[in-house]
Design a protein that fits this description.
heterodimer; A: 455 residues; alpha+beta; five-stranded antiparallel β-sheet; four-stranded mixed β-sheet; 15 helices; B: 216 residues; alpha/beta; Rossmann fold; 6 helices; 39% helix; disordered N terminus
């Protein structure tokens, strides 16, 4: 008996050690993130390939991350190819898998194919749109915009959600694409829907309606002759002056998008207890989001003699946290069912032999691992500015006030061509070292396309 | 645990529950191996219809070009033009805008149409904008490097009489796992002389797509 006791203690000690050694998704992906902050995208892609290239159940996640790394490196076509693969896989995964449901009940949630949360599916479309826009393929971007609309309808129908803050930013982007193509009524509808979604955002997460959206609503309502609606917006926003579509006819627009920081990461929240009645080891492990430090405290732009601030248009943190919160009851229910199953298995095995029981118990507990998968290369926040300019070539500089060391960083983009009646798009990814919270010295973060200097 | 004890573990009678677990494990293993079976390739006839995803595919593209070619060659604009001018009309392919929900390769049915129309011998096609650019570069290169007899002069290009333009639109109606997809392809021939529309072709395609609720 005493002999058995020792065995138990030794086994538990072993268990605790090995749990710490287990590499979860969030631990693995840190290797990629370290290369991201030094802007070594090729190395990051190789690391990602090594980690997840062959995995079937992580295929969506792999392609989402790959698409994002490729777009950071400036390869927008390859990025869209990866995103398209992810999108098609997501469509297929929406059917419920019988084998995966069964194995996830016996083992853990990590054996299920990663399907992506609502906000991830929508942002996937957004980045495809942005890639197409930066490639100058506006009709392709429009195709993607229509797909977002389809996706949103599907989500609303299946999940019967009436407020969908995730909708705000993608709808706003859809409006920009339609306006760029001169499709005023579609643009108006998209802007209006974005406005309503931002309002629901405001109620739950305090992200206010971007000023540029307010002006766009006024501009389009005016153009479409919606006088009542125009009056209502004027009252609500307190704006009385804006450039009309006719006034903007001979101008182009520069749309600048800055993706800052990294999305929150899931960490396992685990509890291991010994049941007083049976002496069995019970372990539950569920995921919880951890926010990363804020990457910047502001971005300013300067182009020709115009300067101003980029507005925050999307914050990923609250969307992710809320999505997990919504999913939590199912995760916990599955974990509980799993525990009941494992408890029974251990009990049965114990009746045969106590050593076998112990083996079953420990294996069961060891296998209990939280599913920490999420699209971690997404940014934490998206900032935007829409700058009307007369046709010509311009140099754009973006001044980022880093919240990491308070220093100003300047990124310049030269020779941006502005055409009358058309938008030109330029994006930037900003990932300072502190968001990966690594114990290292500050590194230089230059972008391949941009020059770097310190003020 | 010594080796002897480990060995003896295998000989233990496993309970009923354990048996079920084992069976489940074997079944799922078999299923997984089946799913991971190596690739199988079967050759297909190009005219064979096989709908996999419900998205726009080769069959749709073929149906559109077939309909359009048949229509454009049988309409009076062609004979009218020949009667009036005594020569074949020259057509240029303009922009075919994809306004649908899907990324559609428009080039395939436009290419089909171009081939059929040229081979019918009743219509001439002029190289498109991008093609022309390349040809012009070659011509200016010839100007410098080709011999006098073989050199092709500039300013001898054939101006088109009509431009082919078009759009692809979709309407999607979905409920749960069911979806009705409606495609409409509109092509227009516009006279370059006076902007008159000489011919309008239309092809509609409707599909009912059911998504699987379950998978392996």
């Amino acid at each position: 008996m005493a002999d058995m006791m020792w065995l138990r203690v030794a086994a538990y000690a072993l268990l605790l050690l090995s749990i710490h050694g287990c590499a979860s998704y969030s631990a693995n992906i840190r290797n990629v993130e370290q290369q991201l902050i030094s802007q070594d995208y090729q190395a990051a892609l190789i690391t990602l390939d090594k980690l997840y290239a062959g995995s079937d159940r992580d295929a969506v996640l792999y392609n989402l991350n790959k698409g994002m790394l490729l777009r950071m490196s400036g390869d927008y076509s390859a990025s869209n190819a990866a995103f398209e693969t992810a999108k098609q896989l997501i469509d297929r995964l929406e059917a419920i898998s019988l084998t995966e449901q069964a194995t996830s009940l016996a083992v853990n949630d990590q054996v299920k194919s990663y399907e992506g949360a609502v906000f991830e599916k929508l942002l996937l479309h957004f980045y495809k749109i942005l890639n197409y826009l930066e490639l100058g393929k506006k009709d392709e971007a429009r195709v993607e915009v229509l797909q977002v609309d389809q996706r949103l309808k599907e989500i609303k129908q299946k999940q019967s959600r009436d407020d969908l803050p995730e909708e705000a930013w993608v709808r706003y982007m859809a409006g920009i694409v339609f306006e760029d193509l001169g499709e005023w009524s579609d643009a108006m509808i998209a802007y209006r829907k974005a406005y309503e979604a931002y309002k629901s955002y405001l109620a739950s997460y305090k992200l206010s309606i971007p000023y540029s959206l307010k002006v766009a609503l006024l501009r389009l309502a005016d153009r479409q002759g919606l006088s009542d609606e125009l009056e209502q917006y004027k009252q609500e926003f307190g704006i009385n002056q804006w450039e009309t579509i006719a006034e903007r006819q001979h101008k182009g627009e520069l749309v600048v998008v800055v993706n800052s920081g990294l999305a929150p990461v899931k960490k396992p929240n685990s509890a291991t207890v010994i049941s007083p009645s049976s002496g069995q080891l019970i372990r539950i492990s569920v995921p919880a989001y951890v926010k990363r430090p804020i990457a910047l405290s502001g971005v300013n732009y300067q182009v020709a003699d115009q300067q101003g601030q980029l507005e925050i248009t999307e914050i990923v943190d609250p969307l992710a946290i809320k999505a997990l919160e919504r999913e939590m009851p199912t995760i916990v229910a599955r974990a509980a069912a799993r525990q009941a199953l494992k408890y029974q298995a251990t009990k049965q095995a114990n009746q045969q032999d106590s050593a076998l029981g112990l083996l079953v118990n420990i294996t069961g507990a060891l296998l209990e691992q939280a599913d920490t998968r999420s699209w971690t290369t997404l940014p934490q926040g998206i900032y935007m500015a829409r700058i009307p300019l007369t046709p010509g070539a311009y140099n754009l500089s973006l001044h980022i006030v880093s919240s990491y060391d308070g220093r100003h960083k300047t990124f310049s983009f030269d020779g941006l061509r502005i055409r009358a009646g058309e938008n030109t798009y330029q994006s930037l990814h900003w990932i300072p070292p502190n968001v990966v919270n690594l114990p290292n010295t500050p590194k230089e973060y230059t972008r391949v396309k941009a020059t770097y200097e310190t003020r | 645990m010594n080796q002897k004890r480990m060995m003896s573990l295998q000989n233990y009678q496993v309970g009923r529950f354990g048996k079920i677990c084992l069976q489940l494990l074997i079944v799922s293993l078999v299923l997984f191996t089946l799913a991971a079976c190596s690739k199988k390739v079967t050759r297909m006839d190009v005219d064979e219809t096989k709908d996999l995803s419900g998205d726009w595919n080769d069959t749709d593209s073929r149906l559109v070009s077939k309909e359009m070619i048949g229509d454009v060659l049988s309409r009076p604009w062609l004979s009218d033009f020949v009667q009036k001018t005594g020569s074949k009309p020259a057509v240029i392919v303009g922009e075919i805008r994809n306004l649908s929900h899907e990324h559609i390769a428009v080039g395939t049915f436009v290419g089909d149409m171009e081939r059929e129309l040229i081979n019918s011998g009743r219509v001439d096609f002029v190289a498109s904008k991008t093609e022309r650019k390349e040809i012009r570069e070659e011509r200016s290169d010839q100007d410098l490097h080709a011999s006098e007899e073989t050199r092709k002069a500039m300013g001898q290009e054939y101006g088109a009489d009509y431009m082919l333009k078009g759009t692809i639109n979709t309407i999607i109606d979905a409920e749960g796992d069911e979806q009705v997809k409606y495609y409409q392809v509109d092509l227009t021939l516009i006279s370059l002389v006076d902007n008159r529309k000489a011919w309008v072709g239309q092809k509609k395609i409707k599909k009912f797509v059911e998504k699987n609720k379950f998978r392996l």
